[in-house]
Design brief:
It contains 6 helices and 13 strands. By secondary structure, it is an alpha/beta fold. The strands form 2 sheets. Strands 1-8-9-10-11-12-13 form a 7-stranded mixed beta sheet. A 6-stranded mixed beta sheet has the order 2-3-4-5-6-7, covered by helices on one side. Helix 3 crosses helix 5.
C-alpha cells in the first residue's frame, strides 16, 4: 500500500503497460507515440496528496516529484520510469531560474532526462526548457502545435508521450491561451491509479487561469475544463502550474464541487472572468517572446526576475 500525504515536494512509483521504443519525430502523425523501452526494477516510496493510491494494480514504477519556484509560484513536475534500466524522465513546466536545481535532482536520482515539456506559453516566467537543452544533451522540448511556438516536438490532442512504459495523454484545454494542453497519466490496468492531470493554467486549485490575453477565451476555457478535465474520474489528482495560497494538489471531484468559478453556469463564469480586472503579468513582454522560441538558449543569459499574475 503506497502511503499518500500532503507536502510541497513529493514523489511516487507505479507500473504501467509495455509500449513501443523510441519515436521522437515531430513529423509523425496523430496518435504517434514518443517512447523509451522498458524493464523490471521494482520501487516503493511515498506520494504526497490528499487522495490515496491503489498500488494493488501497479508494481511501483513511476517516480514523481513536485517542485516549486516561489517568485512566480510555479510548480515543476518530474516524472520517471524507474523500472527501465535508463530510468527515462521528463519535466513539465520547468522555470529558467530553477534549471540547476532540476538538473541536479535528475542526476542525483540517476535518471535520464528525455523531455522538457510545457503546458502552454507562459506569461509570468521564462521556461527553463531552452537552458535545459543546452545543458543536457539529447533532451527534446515539447509543447502543443496550437501554441504556434517552436519546440522539437509539437503535440496535438489525442497523442501520447511515452517515457519507458509510462505515458501521458495529451488533452487540448485552450481558453487561458490558444495552445493550452493538459497532460494526463494513461488509462489502463497497468497505469497509475488514481490518474494524474497536469492542468497548466487551465484549471487551478479552486480557480482557473485568466482569459484576457494570448488568445484567451472564457467561453472556450469553460468548455475545455468541463469536457476534458471534469470528465476524468473524480479521484484524478489535479496538479496545476501555479498556486498562490499554499495548496499543492486537488482532485477532479473536489474542483467539481468547490471551484468558485467553474461550478457556476457558463454565463455566470463568463461574467466572473470579465470582471477580474487583473493587472498584466510583469514579465509578459519578456516571457512570451522568449517562450515562443522554447525559452533562453544562451548559457550566459541570466534568468530574469519573475512575478506572479
Amino acid at each position: 500500500m503506497v502511503v499518500v500525504r500532503m507536502n510541497a515536494l513529493r514523489f511516487s512509483l507505479f507500473k504501467p503497460k509495455p509500449l513501443n521504443v523510441w519515436n521522437l519525430s515531430p513529423q509523425t502523425h496523430s496518435k504517434r507515440t514518443l517512447s523509451f523501452p522498458k524493464s523490471g526494477l521494482k520501487f516503493q516510496t511515498h506520494a504526497f496528496s490528499s487522495a490515496s493510491v491503489d498500488s494493488s494494480r501497479t508494481a511501483g514504477r513511476l517516480l514523481f516529484r513536485q517542485m516549486f519556484e516561489k517568485e512566480s509560484s510555479t510548480y515543476t513536475y518530474l516524472l520517471a520510469d524507474v523500472s527501465h534500466p535508463h530510468k527515462p524522465a521528463l519535466l513539465i513546466d520547468p522555470v529558467d531560474k530553477t534549471v540547476e536545481r532540476d538538473i541536479s535532482l535528475v542526476k542525483e536520482l540517476g535518471l535520464k532526462l528525455i523531455y522538457a515539456m510545457n503546458t502552454h506559453v507562459h506569461a509570468d516566467h521564462v521556461t527553463g526548457t531552452g537552458l535545459i537543452k543546452t545543458k543536457v544533451p539529447g533532451v527534446k522540448s515539447v509543447i502543443s502545435k496550437a501554441s504556434n511556438s517552436k519546440a522539437d516536438i509539437l503535440v496535438e490532442a489525442g497523442e501520447n508521450i511515452y517515457f519507458g512504459d509510462m505515458f501521458l495523454e495529451v488533452r487540448a484545454t485552450p481558453g487561458h491561451t490558444l495552445g493550452c494542453v493538459t497532460y494526463v497519466t494513461g488509462d489502463g490496468p497497468n497505469q497509475p491509479q488514481p490518474r494524474m492531470a497536469f492542468t497548466g493554467d487551465a484549471l487551478l486549485i479552486r480557480g482557473c487561469g485568466r482569459t484576457d490575453f494570448q488568445g484567451g477565451s472564457s467561453r472556450q476555457l469553460y468548455k475545455s475544463v468541463h469536457s476534458q478535465i471534469f470528465t476524468l474520474p473524480e479521484d484524478t489528482l489535479v496538479y496545476p502550474a501555479h498556486d498562490y495560497k499554499g495548496f499543492t494538489v486537488s482532485t477532479v471531484g473536489e474542483e467539481k464541487l468547490y471551484n468558485p468559478r467553474l461550478t457556476k453556469d457558463e454565463e455566470t463564469f463568463e461574467k466572473i472572468m470579465e470582471n477580474l480586472n487583473l493587472p498584466y503579468p510583469k514579465l509578459i513582454d519578456v516571457a512570451v517572446p522568449a517562450n515562443m522560441v522554447c525559452g533562453l538558449q544562451d548559457l550566459s543569459a541570466k534568468p530574469v526576475q519573475a512575478a506572479s499574475n
